[in-house]
Design a protein that fits this description.
This protein is α/β, with parallel strands linked by helices and 314 residues long. Helix content is 40%, strand content 19%. The chain has helices at residues 3-17, 30-43, 61-71, 82-89, 95-117, 128-133, 168-178, 203-225, 278-291; strands at residues 22-25, 47-53, 76-80, 121-123, 158-160, 234-248, 251-264, 272-273, 296-301. It is globular and about 65 Å long.
Length: 314
C-alpha cells in the first residue's frame, strides 16, 4: 500500500471516530504534526490544537513550531505551563516517575483546555514503538512513554491514535507526502529535556542542557553540510549529575558532565552510535565548556548501541 493510500485510510478512520470537538497536543515533532494534519483534514474546525510550553523544550522551539503551524493554515494555541511543570517535577529524579508526572500534567492542561473548548476526544501522535516500549501484557517496560505509560487512569477524554500501528520511518514518509516542514526533523522525546537532564530538574540545569543541545545540533548540521560526516538520525546532549574537578583560568572548580549522543537508525527500535570526527567533537566540547563555564567542565561522547542502551539516557 502506498503512502497516499495510508493517509487516506487514516483520514477516513478519524472521520468515523470523531463526531465532536477534539483536542491534540502539537509539539512540532513528526508524530504529533502528522497526527494534527491528518485530524485537521478529517474534521477541520472541530480540531483544537494546543502547544504546551513545558519549559523543557529546545532552544527557539516555541517560535519555530508556531510559525510552522501558521504556514500550514492550522490554528495553534500556545499554553505556557512551564511553572506548573517545574513545580510538579521538583525533587523528582527517578526516570519512570518523571515520565508519569509529565504525562499527568499534560493531561491536566488538556482537561483545562477541554473545559474551554468542550472537547470530547484527545488525539495523540502515539506510534508503535511508544506502546511497545511502554510494556503491557507480556511485554517488559523498556521506558514509559509519557503518552502511554505516563497517562493517568482517570482521563476524561476519549483517546484517538491515528498512528498507533506505524513506525517512525513510515510516519516520516507520511510527513513528506503531507508536505510537513518538520518531516526531516530529528526525533525529540515527548517529555522534552526532562529525560536529558538526569537528576534534579531545576530551571538552571534544564537551561544548561538546552544550550548544550543547541550547540550539538548546530555543529553536527554544519559538519554534515561541510561533508565531514553524515548527519546522524538523532543527536543531542544530556546533562549528567556527575561532578568532577576541573580548571577555569587559575581556579579549581567542580562542574557537571555533558554527554554527547549521536546515533543512526531507521525506526528507533534499534540504533548504532555515529562515528563523529574527533575535530568536530573537539569543537563541540570547547564550545559547551566555554558557554557553560562554571556549570560544566567535562564533555564525553557516548559510543553505546541500542541495544544494550536506549537512544535517550532516560
Amino acid at each position: 500500500m502506498n503512502t497516499q493510500m495510508l493517509i487516506d485510510e487514516a483520514i477516513e478512520s478519524l472521520q468515523s471516530q470523531i463526531d465532536g470537538t477534539a483536542i491534540i497536543a502539537c509539539s512540532g515533532g513528526i508524530d504529533s504534526s502528522v497526527a494534527a494534519v491528518l485530524a485537521h483534514r478529517a474534521v477541520g474546525s472541530l480540531l483544537h490544537c494546543v502547544y504546551v510550553d513545558t519549559g523543557l523544550m529546545r532552544k527557539n522551539e516555541t517560535e519555530e513550531v508556531s510559525e510552522m503551524f501558521s504556514e500550514m493554515g492550522i490554528k495553534l494555541k500556545v499554553v505556557d505551563a512551564s511553572e506548573r511543570f517545574f513545580s510538579n517535577l521538583e525533587g523528582v529524579t527517578d526516570p519512570e516517575h518523571k515520565r508519569k508526572v509529565i504525562g499527568e500534567q499534560f493531561i491536566r492542561v488538556f482537561e483545562e483546555e477541554q473545559s474551554s473548548c468542550g472537547a470530547k476526544y484527545l488525539v495523540q501522535g502515539t506510534i508503535a514503538p511508544d506502546w511497545i516500549e511502554s510494556g503491557g501484557g507480556e511485554r517488559d517496560v523498556i521506558k514509559s512513554h509519557h503518552n502511554v505509560g505516563g497517562l493517568p487512569e482517570d482521563v476524561d477524554l476519549e483517546i484517538v491514535e491515528p498512528l498507533h500501528e506505524f513506525y517512525k520511518d513510515e510516519v516520516r514518509e507520511m510527513a513528506r507526502e503531507l508536505g510537513i516542514k518538520s518531516s526531516e526533523r530529528q526525533p525529540f522525546p515527548g517529555p522534552g529535556l526532562a529525560v536529558r537532564v538526569l537528576g534534579d530538574l531545576t530551571p538552571e540545569r534544564v537551561e544548561a542542557c538546552r544550550e548544550a543541545c543547541h550547540i550539538v545540533e548546530t555543529r553536527l548540521k554544519e559538519a554534515a553540510e561541510g561533508g565531514k560526516c553524515d548527519l546522524p538520525w538523532q543527536y543531542f546532549a544530556a546533562l549528567l549529575p556527575v561532578r568532577s574537578v576541573g580548571v577555569h583560568g587559575d581556579a579549581r572548580v567542580h562542574g557537571e558532565t555533558v554527554v554527547v549522543r549521536a546515533v543512526t537508525s531507521m525506526d528507533g527500535m534499534s540504533a548504532r552510535y555515529s562515528p563523529i570526527p574527533h575535530e568536530v567533537l573537539s569543537t563541540i566540547s570547547t564550545e559547551i565548556t566555554n558557554a557553560l563555564k562554571g556549570n560544566v567542565n567535562r564533555v564525553v561522547y557516548d559510543i553505546t548501541h541500542k541495544p544494550p542502551g536506549t537512544i535517550e539516557w532516560e
